[in-house]
Write a structure and sequence with these properties.
The protein is an alpha/beta fold. It contains 6 helices and 14 strands. Helix 4 crosses helix 5. The relative contact order is 0.20.
Length: 272
């Protein structure tokens, strides 16, 4: 099973409609609740006094939110459905926001490394994606060598796990996990196979910078209508996997609950 599914992009455009043909809040909320709040792969957590249901999918042993954000490994994340309230708020839900470091000129520096598992084609479109980010923002990417300390340093590792997948493992800077001795549990990882593209690479980089999916905004229903019945199930092993990519569980008040890093446009863009 692959996280990178062509159907996901088809659903994004085909199953949303704009304008006056919008369902009522009551009708939509009832349908979303049935799909998102009753999913087996989910749990409830209290954030600032508000209960939020966190639905997810299990793909190749990894816990995935909204199709391309890996938040942990199966067995490490609470389950039990919306009725189960996690006694401890996971760090990825309500962790302390951390920004990428800022240089004297005012740029935000993102150190990164290219793993040996990456194919040459993937390396090429990663460079293209980085170029586009640097053109449009004050973010600057700096490649680092093998002499790094993942226990103390923050950086992005681009890799290919050989499973034709495109995903990122955090929103914003990855928090350090004192209970894990694995590098990839303590840094930002972006997995990109040759089947991905520079556009997908730019998308996953956006997650590492602190950006979330627009389709999960709390105010989404003011602008689009999700046609839930038109989004296919993913089979009996994880029903509603594709539908859960559109749940609004991780957003509140227009801002994500997950760790975020703030961005600003490049100065030249501000003057235009």
């Amino acid at each position: 099973m692959s996280i990178n599914k062509t159907l996901f992009f088809g659903a994004l455009f085909v199953c949303t409609s704009f304008g006056a043909d919008q369902a009522s809040e009551a009708e939509y909320d009832s349908e979303e609740q049935q799909i998102c709040n009753k999913a087996h792969y989910s749990f409830t957590t209290n954030v600032d006094g508000e209960r939020r249901v966190i639905p997810y999918a299990v793909v190749d042993g990894q816990v995935v939110v909204e199709g391309d954000i890996v938040i942990g490994r199966e067995g490490d994340i609470p389950t039990g459905g919306a009725g189960y309230v996690a006694p401890v708020i996971p760090a990825f839900v309500n962790g302390r926001p951390t920004r990428w470091p800022k240089s004297l000129p005012g740029d935000y520096i993102v150190p990164f490394t290219l793993d040996t598992s990456l194919k040459n084609s993937s390396r090429a479109y990663i460079r293209d994606a980085i170029t586009e980010w640097e053109k449009a923002t004050a973010v600057r990417f700096r490649q680092i060598g093998n002499n790094k300390d993942w226990r103390r340093e923050n950086y992005v590792k681009f890799k290919d796990n050989g499973k034709s997948e495109c995903w990122s493992n955090r929103i914003g800077v990855h928090e350090k996990n004192p209970n894990s001795g694995r590098e990839e549990d303590n840094i930002n990882v972006i997995n990109l196979s040759p089947e991905c593209s520079w556009g997908r690479a730019a998308h996953e980089i956006g997650h590492a910078l602190g950006l979330f999916h627009e389709q999960s905004r709390d105010d989404r229903d003011k602008y689009v209508k999700i046609m839930w019945k038109n989004i296919l199930d993913n089979g009996a092993d994880d029903k509603d996997h594709f539908r859960k990519q559109y749940c609004k569980a991780l957003f509140r008040g227009g801002a994500t609950l997950l760790n975020t890093a703030r961005l600003r446009p490049a100065p030249s863009r501000l003057r235009q």
